Inverse folding.
């Protein structure tokens, strides 16, 4: 019987599988996925940065183009205005010789209205203190009255004009000493 008992006692080898191996494979896959996610997030950030820079550059280009167009338009208007100023000077001179001529008065009003629509403004001179930015003193005279202050404009020889905040032509004036 011993033989039979020996036969029954057989050892069975069981192959064991480690759960740790599966966890290691899962961690390796997870690490790979995290790296891929980080790379994709970096690419998204880079693409977003490029987009924002391109959008800012486009906006700057639009702004520069708008300013260029405005500048060209302003320069053209100033050029035309400078060519019209001698006509206004001639009308003013004609009015000094014939102050009652309704045709010349009408022409002066028409030109003044056109100037106002364009944005050309007459520089006030007589009675003002001399300002070299707006006035060109061509003569100094003694004070016409004791109340007149020094450097006060007493006569305007040629009218000065401004276009917006730019002096088209300074007024030529006579100033008190």
């Amino acid at each position: 019987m011993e033989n039979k008992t020996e036969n029954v006692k057989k050892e069975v080898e069981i192959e064991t599988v480690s759960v740790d191996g599966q966890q290691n494979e899962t961690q390796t896959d997870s690490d790979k996925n995290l790296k891929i996610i980080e790379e994709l997030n970096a690419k998204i950030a880079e693409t977003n940065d490029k987009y924002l820079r391109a959008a800012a550059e486009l906006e700057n280009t639009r702004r520069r183009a708008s300013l260029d167009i405005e500048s060209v338009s302003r320069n053209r208007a100033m050029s035309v205005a400078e060519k019209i100023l001698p006509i206004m000077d001639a009308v003013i001179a004609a009015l000094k010789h014939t102050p009652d001529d309704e045709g010349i008065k009408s022409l002066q009003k028409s030109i003044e209205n056109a100037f106002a629509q364009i944005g050309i403004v007459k520089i006030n001179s007589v009675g003002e203190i001399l300002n070299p930015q707006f006035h060109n003193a061509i003569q100094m005279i003694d004070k016409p009255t004791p109340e007149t202050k020094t450097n006060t404009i007493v006569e305007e020889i040629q009218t000065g004009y401004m276009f917006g905040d730019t002096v088209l032509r300074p007024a030529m004036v006579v100033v008190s000493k």
User: Anything to note?
Assistant: The radius of gyration is 45 Å. Residues 58 and 144 are 62 Å apart (CA to CA). The chain has two domains: 24-118, 119-177. The mean pLDDT is 85.
